[in-house]
From TrEMBL:
Segments forming domain Acyl-CoA oxidase/dehydrogenase middle: 94-183
PANTHER family according to UniProt: LONG-CHAIN SPECIFIC ACYL-COA DEHYDROGENASE, MITOCHONDRIAL (PTHR48083:SF20), MEDIUM-CHAIN SPECIFIC ACYL-COA DEHYDROGENASE, MITOCHONDRIAL-RELATED (PTHR48083)
InterPro entries: Acyl-CoA_dehydrogenase (IPR050741), Acyl-CoA_Oxase/DH_mid-dom (IPR006091), Acyl-CoA_Oxase/DH_mid-dom_sf (IPR046373), AcylCo_DH-like_C (IPR036250), AcylCo_DH/oxidase_C (IPR009075), AcylCoA_DH/ox_N (IPR013786), AcylCoA_DH/ox_N_sf (IPR037069), AcylCoA_DH/oxidase_NM_dom_sf (IPR009100)
Lineage summary: Bacteria, Bacillati, Actinomycetota, Actinomycetes, Streptosporangiales
Protein's name according to its UniProt entry: Acyl-[acyl-carrier-protein] dehydrogenase MbtN
Length: 278
């Protein structure tokens, strides 16, 4: 993908990559028919995007994690329009659950959404927000009253309500634009995914799709690595002959390829069965 080297060098997510997928119809095809779409296509798409490094991970956040939540639980016109923007490749979304104090422990979520007129006032902070700088909106897991997991709600917060506290440095995947973000926004009732108190259910559904995409992405990375190793074995010579002609190396390569076939079969089998209706 020609956009990848520049994106990793500049540390900016290439929206053009998402727009191109939208124009070709690949994202919409993956989510047809709504609300579950075709998880098998999702696995194939994630495998292919693995060649794009951090860019592929970023695309997966939008077209799997964010889209999954919107497709099943986005029941208002506002959320339906947001999903349409994602499917068309026009909107970049991110998913905010982890926080500075509690990390990924949802019991410790301190971000609040308090009733304010015909909507909610959302205040708090989220950390490790992949695409936090690039996003047009964030799906934010908040506490809407009381304690416990039943008090969590997922809401759509526009970029205007997000303020970057700090950009987080990482080893690789610079184009993910991961941030520590402060949130202060008013959102209407239409911004609630599902209903108040259903936040953990919505988040679990979305993150299940992300995990499946990550597994497929891992298979794609393995395939790329084996291909690079094979090319090196053909190019490099030792003891007067190419490395590929050494039996021990060929056997190791064959074993790795066999393990990859098993991995891919497992991923695609899981994708075909995990999100069946009912």
């Amino acid at each position: 993908m020609p956009l990848v080297p520049e994106a990793e060098e500049t540390g900016e997510f290439p929206r053009a990559a998402l727009a191109a997928l939208g124009r070709t119809g690949l994202v919409r095809e993956r989510w047809t028919p709504l609300p579950d779409g075709d998880p098998g296509r999702a696995a194939i798409l994630a495998e292919e995007l693995a060649r794009a490094g951090g860019v592929g991970v970023g695309v997966g956040v939008v077209v799997e994690t964010v889209a999954a939540a919107l497709a099943r639980y986005g029941r208002s016109d506002l959320l339906a329009g947001t999903l349409e923007g994602v499917l068309a490749g026009d909107l970049v979304g991110c998913f905010g659950a982890s926080e500075p104090a509690g990390g990924s422990d949802v019991n410790g979520i301190g971000t609040t959404a308090v009733r304010d007129g015909a909507g909610w006032r959302v205040r708090g902070e989220k950390k490790y927000l992949s695409l936090g700088r690039a996003a047009d909106f964030a799906l934010v897991l908040c506490r809407t009253g009381g304690s416990g997991l039943a008090a969590l709600t997922l809401l759509r917060v526009p970029a205007e309500g997000l303020r970057e506290v700090k950009r987080l440095a990482k080893l690789g995947a610079a184009s993910l634009e991961t941030t520590w973000t402060a949130i202060d926004a008013w959102v209407p009732d239409e911004a609630v995914l599902g209903r108040p108190g259903l936040g953990l259910t919505v988040a679990t559904w979305a993150l299940s799709h992300e995990r499946m995409a990550v597994a497929a992405h891992a298979a794609g990375v393995c395939e790329l690595a084996i291909g690079l190793a094979c090319a090196h074995l053909h190019r490099r010579s030792q003891f007067g002959r190419p490395l590929i002609e050494h039996q021990a190396l060929r056997l190791r390569l064959a074993r790795l390829q066999a393990e990859l076939v098993v991995l891919r079969s497992g991923v695609h089998g899981a994708a075909a069965t995990a999100f069946r209706p009912g």
